Model the fold of this input.
Amino acid sequence: MRVTPRRILAALGLALVVALAVLWLFPSDDYLLLPDPAHPVGPKVFVANSKRDNDGGGIYFVDVILRRAKLFESIFPSIHSGASLVPARAINPPGVNDQARREEDLREMVRSQSIAAAVALRAAGYKVVARPIGVLVSQVDPSGPAAGALEPTDLIVAVDGKKVRTPNALRRIMETHRPGDRVRFTFHRGKTIRQATLKTVADPSDPKRAIVGILIDQAADIKLPVKVRINLGDVGGPSAGLAFALEVMEKLGRDVDHGNRVAATGEIGLDGSVGPIGGVKQKTLGARKSHVDVFLVPAGDNAAEARRYADGLRIIPVRTFQQALRALATLPRKS
Done:
């Protein structure tokens, strides 16, 4: 068979088509974070004997579309507006697959719902039995310092001899350490109290941050005086906690939004603190797409990042639920 320029071009064209098909069909080791429009929380939250609010405003939660990137997308992530490409290790700790991470996200969502309800009811004047009992270990990186020392369901009650009852309290102590420091954990495993001294390592995404390779959550004994039910379906993670708490207040008859469309994100602690979350860029873009009036974001790095992508959207940084309520109370009423 004689090789002609036409046959060479045909072969090159076929090879190109096959290469593009492979790049588009096969997944990479990276993940894509994509914006998703803000969603109203109202239809997802049920509070016994709730009051209807028809002032045109509303509380909105924002989430992020997370999926494994195709090979082509890992090379050209900018084909998607507002996308961020992140390595697998930033999404799934070593030894944790997509399914295990997804199941933990859903458990975090359930825990954040009960905590948000407790915080809102307490702020509304109800007597709530909500006692933080420590910091729950939800996952352990099998290649991290905590492997073999801490296990999922361990209950951390002290760090360096200082009592901790909330994740934020634990994070504040860890922020005083640098990679290579030793940290002493006191924890309950079943009915026994144990201690483990761990040498910290650097966070792969922030070399100055000391970690021991665990994911944590709030452990609490909560009894609500009012029935509250929240259902976001298959949305996982704790970042909608602030939005939940604000919507519960609305359902209790408190005019939180003053007729404004209020988007909110932040992990809420049992003490009312608002903790940092991920995917701020995508959440800010999602809030903008939904044309909300304001966006409540955890103060600090989260708020600074949100402002970079706000493009005129008003960003309100908050550290506590009470601060969020005070900030919203100052908004002009929209008719």
